[in-house]
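ESCALATION

Customer reports they have been waiting on this structure for their group meeting. Please prioritize. Original submission:
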Amino acid sequence: MTVRLYDTRAQALRDFAPRDPSNVTVYVCGPTVQSGPHIGHVRAAVGFDILRRWLEYRHGRVTFVRNVTDIDDKILANATDAEPWWALAYRIELEFTRAYAAVGVLAPTYEPRATASVPQMIELIETLIERGHAYAAPDGSGDVYFDVRSWPEYGSLTRQSLDAMEAAADADPRGKRDPRDFALWKGAKPEEPSDAAWSSPWGHGRPGWHIECSAMSRRYLGGEFDIHGGGLDLRFPHHENELAQSTAAGDPFARYWVHNGLVTVGDQKMSKSLGNFLLADDVLRERDPRVVRYALGAAHYRSSLDLTPASFDEAEAALGRIRSFLQRAARVLPGGSAGRDEDVPVAFASAMDDDLAVPQALAVLHETVRAGNTALDEGDHDAVSAAVGAVSAMLAVLGLDAADEPRGDDAETVALDALVRTMIDQRAEARATKDWTTADRIRDAIAAAGIVLEDGPEGTHWSVNRG
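Update from on-call: job pushed to the front of the queue and completed.
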């Protein structure tokens, strides 16, 4: 039952050995809340949600931290007189929260905002200065930079040589010793809002982007934790800089680095800067959120995902087959279904242990559904119950839990059931008297309303066509 994960720093699969097997610690870089989430953000959240659920299945407890960057150049640039930077950041944060919740992403154990940890950032910067790895700009700007040449391991995450790197573009280079030095603290500028600055030993200013995550991960998980996650596009410079400043300050930092692949459109990375993104709100308005989750989680988390309308159509059809089986099973099993505390099948577990091989795990899920349908056809209720238990357990790990399905006991569903049942009875009477014209007319009317009929040994049952 050893989980193996691809460690980006080692560039290899590694057996996962947490510091405390009873409490896995994970830090994932969350959104910079300058504008609403696109579907690439949601894909990343789904990928790490599946990782979290599997680690909880294997280890029982996961302390999961996902930060919110609520102070940044882009946030200040997008603010207006009518909506100050802090109001914009909070509004966009809520948009991310709604999108994540819609697709079943579990709330993090802690979700710190950068602005709530500024004292910890200042403390970390002071430590770096004391250790000779950071310096205040000599021009009086109030800027503080990390000295990349002072840390020989700089570049180890992405395996780059320092001289081959481009200059850091996160601050004015005028006070830098080396163009590649990156900002730890940014001195306040006259054109920026006065409330977007904090007091520090170097004057009023605000933190650089990279120092935020180092300070927050240390605050909530300690100087060493198990997994640091984020999008592949964050490896450089963000995660490279995090690793350098944290280890230079004396922290062991992350034991494993896990990065998710990007969503592409026509083989180009989906991004706001390229203008080729699908807004999460737009997609979720058009599609069942569970369909969206299935489509985003079905590919291996490290692979690029080229999303098309067919991606969602295929996900909808796949979920439809699972739902159909569970509905059929619920009609014949005592109490409706098996419990949710079943173990997942061995083949499913083997796939998930192998660096979260969700495509192979889904194959096990659908094979179990096929076997369950065969058992239903043969009247083997014990096999049906076992299949329902296994399917339910697998869906829970994947965040597609059937227990979250609408129960169908609301007033509208009861009324619809009564009407459809009446039409089914009328069709049965017409067929019994060999009035095929009337039977066909009723059948066609039911189909035109998007209702699927299923004739079986236990009678005729109906369901809404979701395909």
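Sent to customer with the following note: The CA atoms of residues 431 and 439 lie 6 Å apart.
Escalation resolved.
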